[in-house]
Amino acid sequence: MLLDVLTGFIQELRAAGVPVSMVEAIDATEALRFTDLAARAAFKATLETTLVKNVRHLEAFDTAFEVYFAHHRPEPESSGEKPVPGASQQMPGQSDRPGAGGDADLDELLEALFQALLSDDLAGIRALVRRAVDEFAGIEPGRPVGGTYYLYRTLRRLGIEGLLERLLESEEGRAQSDLEERLIREEYEERIEQLREEIRDEIRRRLVADRGREAVAKTLRKPLLEDVDLMHASRGDLAQIEQIINPLTRKLAARLAHKRRLRRSGRLDFRRTMRRSLATGGVPIDPQFRVPHPIKPEIFMLCDISGSMATFARFTLQFMYAMSSQFSKVRSFAFIDALDEVTSYLEVGTDFPHALDRISTEAEVVWVDGHSDYGRSLDQFWERFGGSLTRRSTVILTGDARNNYRDVNSTILPKLVEVSRAVYWLNPEPEAYWDTGDSVMGAYSRHCTGAYEVRNLRQLEAFVEQIALPPVGRVARPVPHEPGPGRFWRR
Amino acid sequence: MITFAAPGDVKVALDEAKYLADDRIAQVVYLAERLGKPVLIEGPAGVGKTELAKALAVVHERRLIRLQCYEGLDESKALYEWNYKKQLLRIQADQGSDWSELEDDIFSEDYLLTRPLLEAITTDEPVVLLIDEIDRVEVETEALLLEVLSEFQVSIPELGTMRAKSQPLVLLTSNNTRELSEALKRRCLFLHIGYPTVEREKAILLARVEGVTEHLAEQVARIVRSVRSFDLKKPPSVSESIDWARTLIALGVAEVEASDVIDTLHVLLKYQTDIERVAKDLEV
């Protein structure tokens, strides 16, 4: 029985995008032998540790777990009467339960809830939440609406903000100092948030009982963070994405540094080799090489920050910001229909939201009407900064190449490619949309060293891996500096 | 090898070693010992990933062998290396003798320098092996670990396969600066340690900081939690809140006021912008 649920659960994880291999599924089953199945926390920990191997997948795991292994709590009265079908005829939350005193009931419930919240009594809160959902959510069996609809209904009837105010005004909420007051406020807010979660869970449980696990899990499925479309990411997603960008740029930096080290070591250092050979009786067994001069990569990032790119631009600017903390030589430029250097705004130690503000107010990126003009911006870049490009410079352009039917000015890019090491274009639009409407991607991508569709983090990571990794064949292990005698003699 | 009968025992034992584990950590450690699998621990810096390994070594009264990873770590530093100077001496001392005999001789265990990974599986007493900051090595080097982690053996071309005399308890830590390979993750149990709840942090402070009062520990834990809710470059970790509690005690603070927090923020936060942001908010 458990095994059936477990396979269903693993299926669901896979459907949500969490990669669970066969081996891991077997591990989980094996591990369950050593788990106290009655202890929910232990059971969850066992599944989590064997099935999820990435922090970013924990949220998807939690959601699926809640659906598949909901608390089995005794449901005191509701199972007995089940008045819910009758309520379905009426639209609003108020049902026609027998003896429903309406407001009197609500008041009594709210008072009990208030007391429970004040003493942080979880069991009490849960019992009350069950009652609240019974009375106010008005769940209609079979109706294919999401849980949020019922959640909203319950919350509105309870007037959850009012509860917070009451908590703060209560005797316990009074504080001697500002600091204390602030801490108490945050703690109450957290409790209210917890209450909201409890209500959501309860509703979810009802839905599962009504429609079955698979159906509910399906409605709750969200794209994993790395698959969220950056053009249309929500505020919450963006905040989480921003936390990932830092490690990503560190990775890029590490890769580029590593690549530099992987290159053939410098020329033979004759003096040091001879000196070393004294230890081995004059046989130069241990050749020494000069340390090669590290080449510092210079990165020029050009970023379209026009309105159509708003969300993506925030993301690319964040990327630039993170890059500048990793590479000593990153110069950042922003443009709409004019181009301006924004390196100084994104300096290390500045605060990102503040930097964003300054870029949008101080940088001169608008010339006429604030619609993207790639031709003019590129031209400006070439005129003003083309001189600083060298063979060590990598140029990264980000934008949708939607030029509003203006002059493409396709002569600039070949010049850029000629003087720099590489020119990459990252386009947040699906490749199928390139060159449709006013997109002039083709005219540019033809000249670039590489043009990539970067719509989500996964693709950005792929790009980072690709440009940072040396081409195949060069990935060989570092040239051994000390060929041990084992290898030396046993040719 | 197995010393615990239930996850609860793990927790109690770790408590005694002054490591306060929650149910999840205890369960994972328990499973790791039962299944004989390595544990990959991830989480922000300073939440006690390395501490857990140290505490486990104390609990089991085992030696802790630590392999600190860094970029450029290779097999001669992680697994084994031939002591070629000694080999060279041997050859010179024995000139004229039969080569094939000599060859067998110089590729024997006497001429092998064991490095942490090989050492961990060849000692007679089982040990706790800590592979710290695994995310710092390159993907190619990671592959070196796979054989040790899943089979507990090391293959040396000249010698054959060295099998484990004792099975070590293996813990790997990662700060998540890069994605580890699927192959490695598949072989490990995964444990993410985040910031503790207020109650747990308070308990940690009481266990770790000498002379801290119940009241102060609670205040510190609550304030730190509040500071973490800011959008910071580097939120304070557990080790920083311990440092902070010690600082407050050294300053003789019994009741933390907003001004005390502002004066000592530099202990809690490591970036000037972070300090300014929190200080500004607290002053209002």
Q: What does this 3D model show about the protein?
A:
- The complex is a heterodimer of chains A (491) and B (284).
- Chain A is an alpha/beta fold and 491 residues long.
- Chain A folds into three domains: 2-68; 78-212, no CATH class; 240-262 and 296-468, 3-Layer(aba) Sandwich (Rossmann fold).
- In chain A, 53% of the residues lie in helices and 7% in strands.
- Chain A has helices spanning 2-15, 22-32, 40-51, 58-68, 78-81, 84-87, 103-118, 122-137, 147-158, 160-169, 178-211, 213-220, 235-262, 270-277, 310-326, 352-362, 374-385, 412-419, 441-445, 457-468, 485-489; strands spanning 298-304, 330-335, 339-341, 393-398, 422-427, 450-453.
- A six-stranded mixed beta sheet of chain A has the order 3-2-1-4-5-6, with helices on both faces.
- In chain A, helix 8 packs across helix 9 and helix 11 (178-211) crosses helix 12 (213-220).
- Chain B is α/β, with parallel strands linked by helices and 284 residues long.
- In chain B, helix 10 (198-208) crosses helix 12 (238-250).
- In chain B, 38% of the residues are buried.
- The interface between A and B is large, with 51 and 55 residues.
Globally, the shape of chain B reads elongated
Structural class of chain A: alpha/beta
- Note poorly predicted spans of chain B: none
**Overall domain count of chain A:** 3
**CATH topology term of the largest domain in chain A:** Rossmann fold
CATH topology of the largest domain in chain B: Rossmann fold
- How many domains comprise the coordinates of chain B? 3
- Helix % of chain A is 40-55%
Computed structural class of chain B: alpha/beta
Strand order of the largest sheet of chain B: 2-5-8-1-9
Largest Cβ-defined interface: A-B, 51 and 55 residues
- The H/E string of chain A reads HHHHHHHHHHHHHHEHEEHHEHEHEHH
What is the chains' assembly state? Answer: heterodimer
Radius of gyration of chain A: 31 Å
Architecture of the largest domain in chain A in CATH?
3-Layer(aba) Sandwich
Low-confidence stretches of chain A: 74-101, 469-491
Element order of chain B: H for helix, E for strand: HHEHEHEHHEHEHEEEHEHHHHHH
Q: What does the main sheet of chain B amount to? A: 5 strands, parallel
Note the main sheet of chain A.
6 strands, mixed
CATH architecture name of the largest domain in chain B: 3-Layer(aba) Sandwich
Q: How many distinct beta strands of chain A?
A: 6
